[in-house]
């Protein structure tokens, strides 16, 4: 059973404040992930402590990096159940995990960060994993050296 919307609103608002697009319906997921070009990061949000203490802060930090995905979207596990289930179909080769992050390039998963790679690690370590993936797949972070 989903948590009260009042309880999860701050967690949703935190993502939106980072510039992340919420996908709450299957239709929104299909519109965003159905015919991908470029890079897209899908963040599977969660109410758990490792989402609040590690995953969301890591994403916030990584999104300040020069190289970053063209699109960053989120689904909320346990809240927007059909949307989350549909998003997970796009990375079905990976065990469902929340929180988790899937980086796509032209519709293919190029990096997946599971919950077990988040919990027990600080936000800096997780952000570093994201930044490495962004540098490799999201353009010329190394080319300009400019701050975002």
Structure summarized in a few sentences:
The protein is an alpha/beta fold.
3D structure, described in words:
It is a single chain. The protein is α/β, with parallel strands linked by helices and 148 residues long. It has a single domain (5-136), classed as Glutaredoxin (3-Layer(aba) Sandwich). It is built from six helices and five strands; from the N terminus they run αβαβαβαββαα. The chain has helices at 5-17, 26-33, 49-62, 81-89, 123-137, 141-144; strands spanning 21-22, 39-45, 71-76, 100-105, 108-113. A five-stranded mixed β-sheet has the order 1-3-2-4-5, sandwiched between helices. Strand 4 and strand 5 (108-113) form a beta hairpin. Helix 2 packs parallel to helix 4 and helix 3 packs across helix 5. The longest helix has 15 residues, at 123-137. It is globular. The model is unreliable at 141-148 (pLDDT under 50).
Helical residue percent? 40-55%
Q: CATH topology, what is it called? A: Glutaredoxin
| Rg from alpha-carbon coordinates | 14 Å
Dominant shape? globular
CATH class: Alpha Beta
Largest sheet: 5 strands, mixed
Encode the helix/strand succession as letters. Answer: HEHEHEHEEHH
CATH homology-level superfamily: Glutaredoxin
Distance between the termini: 40 Å
Q: List the strand order in the largest sheet.
A: 1-3-2-4-5
Low-pLDDT runs of 5+ residues are 141-148
Number of β-strand runs: 5
Q: Top keywords for this entry?
A:
148 residues; alpha/beta; Glutaredoxin; five-stranded mixed sheet; 6 helices; 43% helix; globular; disordered C terminus
